[in-house]
# Entry
Amino acid sequence: MASHLVELLMRFPARISFFLLCCGLAGGCSEGVGRKVEATVLSMHGSVVFGIDEQADFRPIAPERRLPDGSSVRTLDGAWVNLALLPGALLQLSNNSEIKIEELRISKNGNETGDAMRSRTAQIRLNRGKITILFSGGKSVSRFAINAGETTITADSDCLFCVQIDQATTRLTCVRGKVYASHSAQPAVAIGAGYFQRWPSARLETVAATEDATAQIDVVDSLEIGDQLGELESRSQNRRPF
# Structure
């Protein structure tokens, strides 16, 4: 069989090469090209540091710094930082807070641009403090997951929300769209715009933000931060390497 294959390659090299090329192109178009990407620092204020892969030495961060998987970002007292994780996935890390970037990945149709994005995946861990997320679902299959203590939060469509964690509780306030959250062994709940949830809690149903003073502050602050993140994304779209 091997000798027969060699004979075919010698007799019809051009046709076989063309056939193999077509197969490669077809496979690339059907599966998409997946790759890891890095988060980008859009803007910051005050002392912000980062470390990679559990390294003990945290170093000062600078605007436009790229942050790969495994990076931990920490803001000190009075500081904050705005990050672009993926196209349409942005966050602000508030003061005295820390996140770890666990996975950032996109899949595209070859090297095409524009609407060629097939999927986006982002997973981060909120170790302490507060983050505000602006997420655009877009046309591609998207998944954004946040681990905050024993609570897992996911988003797959347009939304604006904030998450805060301390030693005792985790709190989520949704401002636009809808997000999903599950705590410990409890079933996941959908939290819509204008509602919040706190864990641990004996109440499984969400609560209107109008019934809680802190939730009302969350809504006002998130709207302001969401506008900032949207403006920063518009400015940086042509410079990002996605």
